[in-house]
Amino acid sequence: MTSVTSRAGFLRSRAGGLPRPFWVLFGGSFVNRLGTMVEPFIGVYLTQERGLPLTTTGLVMTMFGVGSLLAQPVAGWLSDHLGRRATLTGGMVATAVTMLALGYTTSVPGLVAGMLVLGIVVDAYRPASQAIVADLVPPEDRPRAFGLLFWAVNLGFAVAMVAGGWLARSGFTVLFWVDAVTCLVFGVLVWRAIPETRPSRDDAPPGRFADVLRDRVMVAFVLANLVYALVYLQVHSALPLAMTGQGLPTSAYGMAMAVNGLLIVVVQPVTTVWLARFDPSRVLAAGFALVGLGFALTSLVSSGAGYAATVAVWTLGEALTAGIPGAIVATLAPAHLRGRYSGLYGLSWSAGALLAPLVGTRLLADAPGLVWPVLGGLGLLAAGAQLLLGRAVRRRSAA
């Protein structure tokens, strides 16, 4: 009986007390990420299925990044102007349609246009979903709620990576259909089961993006996160190139990344509640620093096992950051501007996704011995900036 009681208490501490619409968003996000099979394999699809040269493939994939960059401010504005539910549902339905169109497009101009549109609509859910959580969940529970959402997304994506590789053997068209169907399911769930949470216009003053940009604490927070994103996103650019450049097979990179997925799924739910008792800014700074340390240690390894060990270090830092940025953004944002604030925060990740490959590949080409110490230093810089911002964030939270 004692073990059953303690197990129930464990579950309540991690999942109890959150409103039903949050769990709809949680389940829908998990289903949606289960179907995220096109993005990880888009380069392979363009070169093998459509026969595009690498230069053209790079152009098509860059258009996705440009679309993602545009998506954050646009979706943030729509979330505040039209509503969170309408933006999230519309983005998912538009993503489903765009996925199917891309799956049957053969011309290069069509692929370029399709990837630009996909970048815009596929990321529209981020500001809207973050605003929904901030609207629904009280401040003391937000780190836990955002952490759970982070965990659902990562678990779904981990399964999608395995299933996508297997399903691709039957042809890439099936990946587009799976992605489209799961997006449509997510959109329908949101529309039917999540109420509109945007504050009434009668109760809220008019707002503009200029109001967000005048918030110096928020702008500084976004810039610190951009520096962190430049470090973290090297996992998709500099890290695989460095490993294969040392003669390691691509399977070694896959195994190292499997360590990341496994640790996130196992460790992050355990740490979320425990970390909620500490100051969010300090926890986030510790996470940034640990990620920087993990990448700095990469300069000392050359084997697959060594790389896997460094991945384990920065994954623990990633687990520390889970859910914390969303909670800080919700603290800083007035209720009627939560969509725009979340869009500005998302912009740091979209900009990081565009800049990280340029930074990582240039460092690898010009100073291969310095790439990992430099990235480690950038991680510490982001951590220091977050510590300096902590007092202002705490003041805003108290107010």
UniProtKB/TrEMBL annotation:
The keyword Membrane applies. The keyword Cell membrane applies. One of its GO terms (molecular function) is transmembrane transporter activity. This is MFS transporter. Keywords: Cell membrane, Membrane, Transmembrane, Transmembrane helix, Transport. Pfam families: MFS_1. It comes from the Bacteria. Belongs to the major facilitator superfamily. TCR/Tet family. Its main location: membrane. The chain crosses the membrane at residues 21-46, 52-70, 108-125, 146-168, 174-194, 215-235, 255-276, 283-301, 307-332, 344-364, 370-389. One of its GO terms (cellular component) is plasma membrane. It is a multi-pass membrane protein. PROSITE patterns: MFS, SUGAR_TRANSPORT_1. It is found in: Cell membrane. InterPro entries: MFS, MFS_dom, MFS_trans_sf, MFS_Transporters, Sugar_transporter_CS, Tet-R_TetA/multi-R_MdtG-like. PANTHER family: MULTIDRUG RESISTANCE PROTEIN MDTH, RESISTANCE PROTEIN MDTM, PUTATIVE-RELATED-RELATED. Residues 21-394 form the Major facilitator superfamily (MFS) profile domain.
